[in-house]
């Protein structure tokens, strides 16, 4: 089912030479270019499906925020292409 986007929703595009993917997010509260805060491990209660696409978490304004493994997300995109071509 397609859900309507919230008014603050944005599409964040990640790409590599092999693939691009758009991620619909509720909002963008900030962008980190160079210095990522200290990467902490994910909680052990994190569902496996989520943990597969995260490299860890950082504290942002005192709250934990998952950090995407962009390579893993793009690999999912490439798998989709192979499935469609299959």
Secondary structure: elements and pairs:
Layout: E1 10-15, E2 20-25, H1 48-51, E3 54-60, E4 63-68, H2 70-85
Antiparallel strand pairs: 1-2, 3-4
Q: How would you sum up this structure in a few lines?
A:
With 86 residues, the protein is of the alpha+beta class. The protein has helices at residues 48-51, 70-85, and strands spanning 10-15, 20-25, 54-60, 63-68.
Word description of this protein:
- By secondary structure, this protein is an alpha+beta fold.
- The protein has helices spanning 48-51, 70-85; strands at residues 10-15, 20-25, 54-60, 63-68.
- Strands 1-2 form a two-stranded antiparallel sheet.
- The longest helix is centred in the last third of the chain and has 16 residues, at 70-85.
- It starts with 9 loop residues before the first strand and ends with a helix.
- The mean pLDDT is 85.
């Amino acid at each position: 089912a397609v859900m309507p986007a919230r008014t603050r929703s944005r599409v964040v595009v990640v790409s590599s030479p092999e693939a691009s993917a758009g991620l619909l997010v509720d909002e963008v509260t900030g962008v980190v270019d160079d210095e990522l805060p200290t990467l902490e491990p994910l909680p052990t209660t994190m569902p496996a499906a989520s943990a597969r696409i995260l490299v860890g978490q950082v504290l942002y304004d005192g709250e934990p925020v998952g950090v995407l493994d962009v390579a893993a997300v793009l690999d999912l995109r490439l798998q989709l292409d192979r499935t469609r071509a299959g």
